[in-house]
Each structure stands twice: as C-alpha cells, then as structure tokens.
C-alpha cells in the first residue's frame, strides 16, 4: 500500500463532498420558481436531460473513422476507463442512439418511440445500457443535471380522513413541481422559461398530476377557496431528486419472467392492499405506484430481452411509448416522462420481425443495431481491457496474441467479399485501416457490399468477444498450471480450436467455416512471426539507411531521366532498374505500378525536404518494410534456419543476441525462444520447398 491511510474522518468528508448540498433541504415552491427562472434547464424533460448528459461528459470527433465519440463510452471518466467501448461500429451505434434521444428532446417523434438495441449476444448493448444508467445517476447528482420534485405536507390538518402515516407524501411519480400549476398558468411560466433558455430544444410540460396528487390538490383548493398560493405555501415542499436504480428512483430495469407469472401490474402498479381498509377501493390514495414505468419516471426505463415478452404484454409499451401514459387496472391514466430503452438478441428479433400482429409495436420502435467490432486491433483492446480489470497471474502476453485472436473474431463476423481480387483476411485488414497508398481497395464499397449481403447488418453474426475472452483466460490459466510464464498466439489458437464445438452459441453448420478461418489466422501469424524473426536476425539500421539513400538516388534519377554516380567507379550510369525492382518486389508492387510507387516516395521525400526534415527511410513505413525484406533476402543464406529449432546447434552468444533483439520487440525470453523455433522451422520448410 502506498500513500497515507484514509481515516474515517477522511472517508466521511469524501462522501459529504460528493453529495449535493441541497439533497436534504426542503424548499418552498416560490424558491423553485425563482431557481427555474434563473436556470430553465432544471425543468427539462427526460429526453432533454439524457441528451445533455451525453454531451456533458465530453465528445470527440474521430476524423479517421468519421464518428462522434462520447467520452463516457470512449474513456469512461467515472470508472477510470474500466468500461471503455472500442470499435468504429459500436461508436456509430452509440452516436445513433444519442441522435434519437436528441431528436426526442426536440419533440421530433423519437420521444414517443422505444429505442431498441438490437445485436448478437456479447456485442456490448447491455453494458452500454448499464453505463448510461450509471452516468445518468451521476449527472443528476451534479448542478448541471439537477432536478427537483415535491412532497405534500400537513395533509392531516385539512383532509380529515387522511391516514396519520400519510401526513407527508412524496410525489408518487416524482413529477416536476411545475405540474402543480394549472396548465394555463404553467404555460405562462414555460413561455418565460423558453425566452431565457440556451438550448437546441424548448421546455414543454403538459402533464397532468398523478391521480393521488390530483386528489390532494382538489381537496386543498376546496379548503382554501381556490387560493393556489396558500395550497403551495402551506402544503408543498420542494426536494432534490437524484436518480438511483437501487432505490428504483428515475431509473428502472425490467426483465421477462415466466410467461404464466408475468403480470401487467409489474409495469403499471397495483392496488396497495394495506390502504384499502383505510381509503376504500376506488380512492386514488389506495394505489401503489410501484410499477416499473412509475419508478422510471423522469429518467430511464430499461427493458431487458424485451421481445421475449408475450405479445399481449407488449401492448402496455404501446401506450407508454406513443401516448406517454400508462393505464393501470381500475385506475385513471397516468402521464409518464422517460426514455424507454429495450434490448433484444437476434433470434427473438427475427421471430417477431415477420409477425403481422406485431406491426403496431414495431412501428413504435426505433431500432439501433449494436454489432460486434469489425476492426481486429480494436477487438484486441477489448481483451486487453478484460486483462486490466482482472487479477491476472504474472504472465507475459506475447506480441500478436490478442491481435490474432481479434482477427479470428472479425473473420467470423464479416461477409466474404464478392471479388476474387481480395481475400477475407485482406478485407479484415482493410477494415482495420491497413491500407497502403497504392492499394486498390475501396473500403466504403466493401462495407456497402457487406451490408447488402448480410441478413440484417454486417457484424450481427459470428463469434463474440466474450467467447474469445473466455478462451484467452483459459489459456492463461493453462499456461500457469504448466509453469509457463507467457501466453503466445500458438496456445490461444489451440484453445480456440478445441472449444469451438463445445460453445453453445456457435451453430454447428458454422464450425467447419470457423476452423477454416482459424487456419487463415495461423497463416497470418506465421507471416508476422517470420517478420519479427527477420527483423531480429538481419536488422541493421546503418545498412537500411545506406540502402534507402541508394534507392532514393536511383528513383530521383529515374524520374528526372538522369544518371547517377556509381559508388565504386565514380562514373555516371543509368538508374539500376534491377536494384529498384528488388526493393519494390518486396512489397508485391507489380511492374505496371512501379512508377506510381516511385512518384509516391519521391513526393514524400520532397515534402519532408520543404519542411526541413532530413531523409530517413525509417520514417516511411512502406519503404522501411521493403528495405528490411531486401536486407533479409541478402542475409538469409548465411543463416542456418534448421538450427533455430534446436538450441544445441547454435552458438549461445549468437542465439542470445537474437533473443535480445526479440525482447526489444516486446517478447519475453521464453516467448522469444518459441517464436525463433516456430519461425525457423517455417522458413526452413519453405527454403526446402523452394
């Protein structure tokens, strides 16, 4: 433990500082009116408050992906990054969700729709929903997100049949205090609020008081001869309202239960049987406002696995979304104000999609697709986050391990390309942003083809990050039990391959295809392992710089149709085409594209020269890779690759130097030995075959 130990006094102070100063204070209606005139946003509705919440924690525009990222999802400041979301597709979905909430805030229609998050299992839709609720709770604790409700007091002084236990009654629906004003007077206040409001929306509130509050208001107005001021001064206290899912206050989750036991009163509330003997059956004071829609008022309603509910039960959602009211059994309608979010998986959606009897429900639903991540490096960050958030054994994760696991996941999710000119792995690399300037690949067209061919959308099927994360965890524990201090791609491939058949969510008809994809990933890793070993065995910075300068001298001479001085004789000669092509072929640049590449590199050098930056081939990724591979070709004939497989056949100093070079690339020493043997065996085999 580092730092000073927190005392109880310290902890108490931290807590007190985190609580709104006015949380326990009761204020007058006059005070509330002054506050809301000064800050009209206090009177926002649920969609407006939730929309502002997303912006409050910050936004960032990702120019590369062309997507707005909300920092609560891309950085998670409240939880030190523990719940960060990765992947362009996921942030696009979050942005689409927020846009629908913002449209609802403006009264454009989505406020009367269910926001349905649709995606495969493990795509993160439930976690995003959970995170939104946590941030809404936090936002309402802050001045920027504050909201208020009211409670009735001293009721027994006027209403003689009032139960003494009910002398003070908090607004059952946590309504905004403005609803205490009759609509005509309320509209006057709201008009003045909107004159001072700095927001893209306008304040609206045409809700009726809940039935119990309506009862109290009628009785009190009758007592005070319709003197509204006396009613509000003597019997209304304004209190701070903070969202809390644990308290079922402004945030509520609802999940399907056994169909036989499902009851609509779970949504709309029911009779409070303990009050029946006191008030009688038809008295609104005998109603228990404990339904999920009641609890979620002023905030967020979250419906888990929404489409698993019976069709008849979903009808309650029609009124809740479209009419923004609920109609409890044997009770008047009750106005509600909340963002209704539903979640569902693919099988339930497909089943309900073609059901004509679900047409009305579907029409009141705004679907937001929540796919799997389709960039494998972003996918690998999900596994990295998983390891950060867990008590991982002291084990070293070798280079490419998480990325190759992510590549396998992405291959199962993307649609195979139509064109024979690009492979599935190349498509995954294109989605990952691995495009060279000379590559003739249109990523937008690939995405459009994928969306057109997919059943619902690309990324809505395949292997989940949850499954792959579980296999990585199992591979880590297996390595620990075997006394191995590292986790390599080879061991993760083994666990993925062995457990595909045993995973319940993977269709049997997909198994053969997934095993084929795993072999593709093995081949991709083989190339990367050989590249790493190539770098370790043949890397020479000075030689690469010298070869790079030579290449550029000959390229410039070629472009200018000039000669170049021979290094040995000092005589002028034509550009060495054989040398130029030897470098370019290492990048698979065909003869008919060589001029494009040479001009590209020439432009790059000229641009850097204008900026005052000297030439260094290390700064150009494509040129560096080409020169490294050329150097490898020149040196590999002096390396005994077969000896790499056996430690006994190599000089220890030479082998240790290679291991040190791999350690500099991020390998552990044991992992470096494994990749040396693996890549050495593969190169030796290819040399024999060649």
UniProtKB/TrEMBL annotation:
Alphabetically ordered keywords of this record: Kinase, Transferase
Top-level lineage group: Archaea
Cited Pfam families: AAA_PrkA, PrkA
Name of protein: Serine protein kinase, PrkA
Lineage: Archaea, Methanobacteriati, Methanobacteriota, Stenosarchaea group, Halobacteria
Transmembrane segments: none
InterPro entries: Prk_AAA, PrkA_C
Domain spans labelled PrkA AAA: 27-421
Keyword Cytoplasm among UniProt keywords: no
Alphabetized GO MF terms: protein kinase activity
Coiled-coil stretches: none
Protein species of origin: Haloferax mucosum ATCC BAA-1512
Keyword Disulfide bond part of the UniProt annotation: no
């Amino acid at each position: 433990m580092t730092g000073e130990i927190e005392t109880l006094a310290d902890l108490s102070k931290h807590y007190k500082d985190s609580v709104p100063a006015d949380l326990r204070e009761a204020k007058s209606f006059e005070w509330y009116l002054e506050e809301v005139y000064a800050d009209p946003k206090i009177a926002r509705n649920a969609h407006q408050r939730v929309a502002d919440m997303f912006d409050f924690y910050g936004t960032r525009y990702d120019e590369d992906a062309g997507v707005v990222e909300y920092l609560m999802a891309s950085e998670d400041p409240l939880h030190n990054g523990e719940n960060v979301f990765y992947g362009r597709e996921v942030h696009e979905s979050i942005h689409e969700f927020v846009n629908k909430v913002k449209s609802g805030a403006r009264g454009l229609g989505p406020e009367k729709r269910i926001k349905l998050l649709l995606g495969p299992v493990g795509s993160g839709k439930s976690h995003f929903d959970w995170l939104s609720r946590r941030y809404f709770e936090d936002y309402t604790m802050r001045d920027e997100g504050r909201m208020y409700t009211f409670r009735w007091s001293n009721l027994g002084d006027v209403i003689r049949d009032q139960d003494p236990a009910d002398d003070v009654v908090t607004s059952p629906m946590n309504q905004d205090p403005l609803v205490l004003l009759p609509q005509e007077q309320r509209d006057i206040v709201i008009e003045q609020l909107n004159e001072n409001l700095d927001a893209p929306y306008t304040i609206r509130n045409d809700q009726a008081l809940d039935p119990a509050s309506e009862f109290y208001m009628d009785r009190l107005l009758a007592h005070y001869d319709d003197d509204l001021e006396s009613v509000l001064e003597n019997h209304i206290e304004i209190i701070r309202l903070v969202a809390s899912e644990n308290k079922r206050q402004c945030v509520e989750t609802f999940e399907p239960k056994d169909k036989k036991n499902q009851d609509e009163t779970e949504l709309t509330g029911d009779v409070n049987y303990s009050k029946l003997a006191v008030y009688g059956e038809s008295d609104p004071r005998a109603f228990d406002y404990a339904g999920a829609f009641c609890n979620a008022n002023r905030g967020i309603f979250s419906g888990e696995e929404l489409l698993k509910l019976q069709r008849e039960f979903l009808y309650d959602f029609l009124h809740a979304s479209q009419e923004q009211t609920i109609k409890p059994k044997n009770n008047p309608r009750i106005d509600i104000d909340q963002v209704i979010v539903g979640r569902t998986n693919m099988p339930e959606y497909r089943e309900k999609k073609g059901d004509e009897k679900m047409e009305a429900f579907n029409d009141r639903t705004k679907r937001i697709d929540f796919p799997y991540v389709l960039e494998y490096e972003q996918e690998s960050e999900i596994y990295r986050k998983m390891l950060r958030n867990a008590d991982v054994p002291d084990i070293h994760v070798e280079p490419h391990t998480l990325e190759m696991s992510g590549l396998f996941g992405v291959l199962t999710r993307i649609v195979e390309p139509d064109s024979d000119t690009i492979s599935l792995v190349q498509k995954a690399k294109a989605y990952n942003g691995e495009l060279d300037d000379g590559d003739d690949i249109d990523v937008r067209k690939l995405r459009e083809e994928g969306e057109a061919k997919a059943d619902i959308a690309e990324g809505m099927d395949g292997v989940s990050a949850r499954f792959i994360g579980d296999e990585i965890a199992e591979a880590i524990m297996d390595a620990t039990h075997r006394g191995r201090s590292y986790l390599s791609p080879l061991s993760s491939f083994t666990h993925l391959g062995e457990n595909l058949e045993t995973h319940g969510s993977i269709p049997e008809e997909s198994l053969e295809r997934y095993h084929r994809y795993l072999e593709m990933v093995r081949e991709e890793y083989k190339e990367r392992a050989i590249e790493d070993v190539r770098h370790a065995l043949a890397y020479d910075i000075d030689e690469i710089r010298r070869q790079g300068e030579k290449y550029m001298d000959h390229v410039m001479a070629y472009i200018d149709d000039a000669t170049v001085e021979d290094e040995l004789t000092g005589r002028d000669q034509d550009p060495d085409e054989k040398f130029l092509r030897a470098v370019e072929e290492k990048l698979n640049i065909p003869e008919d594209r060589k001029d494009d590449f040479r001009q590209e590199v020439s432009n790059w050098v000229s641009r850097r020269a204008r900026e005052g930056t000297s030439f260094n081939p290390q700064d150009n990724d494509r040129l560096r890779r080409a020169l490294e591979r050329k150097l490898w070709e020149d040196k590999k004939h002096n390396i005994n690759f077969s000896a790499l497989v056996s430690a006994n056949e190599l000089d220890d100093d030479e082998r240790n130097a290679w291991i040190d070079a791999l350690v500099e690339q991020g390998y552990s020493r044991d992992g470096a030995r494994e990749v040396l043997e693996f890549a050495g065996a593969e190169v030796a085999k290819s040399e024999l075959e060649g």
